[in-house]
Amino acid sequence: MASVAERLQAAGAVNALELRGVTRMFGALAALTDITLSVRPGERRAVLGSNGAGKTTLFNCITGDFPPTSGTIRFFGEDVTDFPPQDRIRRGLRRTYQISQLFAGMTVFENIYLGCRGVSRGRFSMRPPRRADALVQAAEELLDAVHLVPVRDLLVAELAYGQQRQLEIALALAGAPRFILFDEPAAGLSPTERSELLEILNALPPHIGFIIIEHDMDVALRVVDSVTMMHNGRIFKEGRPEEIESDPEVQELYLGGAHA
Q1: Cα(156)–Cα(141) distance, rounded to whole angstroms?
Q2: How confident is the model at residue 175 (pLDDT cuts 50, 70, 90)?
Q3: Inter-residue contact 226 to 198 (CB < 8 Å)
Q4: What is the domain partition of the chain in residue ranges?
Q5: Is the confidence at residue 35, as pLDDT, over 90?
Q6: Helix, strand, coil % (nearest 5) of the chain?
Q7: Using CA atoms, how far apart are residues 147 and 166, in angstroms rounded to an integer?
Q8: What is the model's pLDDT at position 129?
Q9: pLDDT beyond 60 at 124
């Protein structure tokens, strides 16, 4: 029987996320065509491209919201192509959305506590939470990680927009995820809120890898190790942030040649 160390070493030998020939059709329209992509455990990657490039459809395929028409998706070595979203969540995959999906009539802490409980084994228990409960402590730690301790008892409806985005990150971190998909977390944020977001993302535990979709390249390129550019449902170019930022084709196609 393999030791814990041997199992961890074996887990590190596989990719966190691996797509092979993923295609997604909507009738006669190909939203994604032959996407092949590998992301290592702990890697942080940006997926960039103009509107209609296929970025959100890519996320929907990875999460199981819209399974691929063809191709395979593996998560830490396991084929999850046909798994429903909840089974992927149980295996450690999380996602944020462009449109907030929060309980506006509940407090910040209550939202985070429910997020922790929802991915726990005791999620169906009717026992009320006690301060010594592990889930309560986990929620308190997440409050601190996303800089929301001062507003823990405010209703979500009372939060500033940027704070709601921070709360979404806390929910994505609930239950010890292995990989997170961030869908335009900087959209609509002020410069100050963007700085807060950068600080939170850069402080995430190193073992948690993520893919970020983001129109703001100045945000995306400051939190990732690698970049995948998409165009018309296909992978257009891949490289390190500095390579993508200085690439003439990227500047011409996505930035109008104005980004220095």
Answers
A1: 18
A2: confident
A3: no
A4: 15-92+177-260, 105-176
A5: yes
A6: 35, 25, 40
A7: 8
A8: 56
A9: no
Q: Quick one: which H or E segment has residue 171?
A: helix 161-173
Q: pLDDT > 90: what percent of the chain?
A: 73
The residues with which 32 forms a beta bridge, in sequence order, are 24
Strands 209-213 and 44-48 come out as parallel
- Residue pointed to by tokens 């402080």: 203
Specify the pairing of strand 78-79 against strand 179-183: unpaired
Structure tokens belonging to residue 44: 């942080």
Distance CA 197, CA 23 (A): 32
Helix (H, G, I), strand (E, B) or coil at 126: coil
Quick one: fold of 15-92+177-260? Rossmann fold (3.40.50)
Residue 153 corresponds to which tokens in the numbers above?
């008892």
- Is the per-residue pLDDT at 254 higher than 80? no
Question: Are 12 and 181 spatial neighbours (Cβ–Cβ below 8 Å)?
Answer: no
